[in-house]
Amino acid sequence: MRSSGRNSRGSGSGSGGNNYRGAGNRRDEQQRAGRPRPEERRYDVGGGPQAGPGPKAGPGPKAGPKGGQGGGPKGGPKGGTARSGAPKGVGGRGRKPNAPARPREYEAQMEERNRARHDKPRVALPKTFGEVEGERLQKVLARAGMGSRRACEELIDQARVEVNGKIVTEQGLRVDPEKDEIKVDGLTVATQSYLFFALNKPAGVVSTMEDPDGRQCLGDYVTNRETRLFHVGRLDTETEGIILLTNHGELAHRLTHPRYGVKKTYLAAIQGPLPRDLGKRLKSGIELEDGYARADHFRVVQNTGKNYLVEVSLHEGRKHIVRRMLAEAGFPVDKLVRTAFGPIALGDQKSGWLRRMTNTEVGMLMREVEL
């Protein structure tokens, strides 16, 4: 009985073992011949060329429960892939068979290190002693519309720029545009914080920024502005012509103050015939209910039959002053247009158009009121 058991075990193991060794010898011969193993042809379906199905691994009596091969009682190693040498997941999409897989935690740590390297806060370095604060003069001039920085540097070299009454001859001077007075050719340079506009007001527009009765007003022409603007002086509702808008309070105050006497010029359409001494009467003074009113200049611009177009200049700013003066002299006004406010002329600006004043015009206005 003992010998028969030994013979049965020997025969069973012997057959399985001989078959297993035979399969191993065949695989070694195939590997030496350059052909892939059957396991590799069966499992390597990744990025390489498609391999045909290989023969079964061995004639063992029963395969293992997890795809093992050979004649062992449980079929050998799990999955059979460890014996073939192919890594797990070799058939994954887009990954090379020999590229090692990186853990997601490791990739996240690398990304955090890269971000931390570039997101370091700036270190506030201490200022050196004696450093002058402010902006460079040529930069302020360029921002104010005087030209490019190179052109502004040439203005400084030509001794045409002065700061606080002193002519600047060297480059790199730092200034405070809000406090320092900067002039070019004697004209004050307006910084970017102030806005200056000229509007050709049509007839029927009220000279206010808002109207509670819903009538058309000046505020309808300056909507969507970053800062609040206000008008310089007034014009009658029926009067057309130039009116200034700005956010420079001191300039607006001086332009309307009688002390500075800024001259305004009007064109008036009246009916003739006109006496020769009309201009002399207007210059000498016309008595009104609120005192005498005098014109600085008077001339006839055009005459067609009885229709006259006359020009009147005066520095007073009383209400309806031109209309009342001509009506008192016996010539009621049919139409009135203001053509100039100080040095700013209406020119060919169309009715209802708003334009930004040039830096030269602003400088002339400021010189007019000693700013």
Verbal overview:
Helices cover 28% and strands 19% of the residues. It is an alpha+beta fold and 371 residues long. The strands form four sheets. Strands 7, 8, 9, 10, 13, 14, 15, 16 and 17 form a nine-stranded mixed β-sheet that branches. The chain has a four-stranded antiparallel β-sheet with strand order 3-2-5-6. A two-stranded antiparallel sheet has the order 1-4. It is elongated.
Q: Please provide the ordered H/E string of secondary-structure elements.
A: HHHHEHHEEEEEEEEHEHEEEEHEEEH
Percent in helix: 25-40%
Using the CA coordinates, give the radius of gyration. Answer: 49 Å
User: Which spans have pLDDT < 50 for at least 5 consecutive residues?
Assistant: 1-21, 43-87
Q: Which descriptor suits the 3D outline?
A: elongated
What quaternary form is this?
single chain
What is the mean predicted local confidence, pLDDT? 76
Content-based structural category? alpha+beta
**In total, how many beta strands?**
17
Strand content: 15-25%
Number of helices: 10
Q: CA-to-CA gap between the ends?
A: 131 Å
The biggest sheet amounts to: 9 strands, mixed
Topology:
Blueprint (H helix, E strand, L loop, with lengths): L1 H31 L5 H6 L37 H4 L19 H15 L16 E2 H7 L5 H9 L3 E3 L2 E2 L6 E2 L6 E3 L2 E2 L7 E6 L28 E3 L7 E7 L2 H8 L7 E8 L6 H7 L1 E3 L2 E3 L3 E8 L2 E8 L6 H8 L6 E7 L2 E2 L8 E3 L2 H10 L3
Parallel strand pairs: 9-15
Antiparallel strand pairs: 1-4, 2-3, 2-5, 5-6, 7-9, 7-17, 8-9, 10-14, 10-15, 11-12, 13-14, 15-16
Helix pairs in contact: 5-6
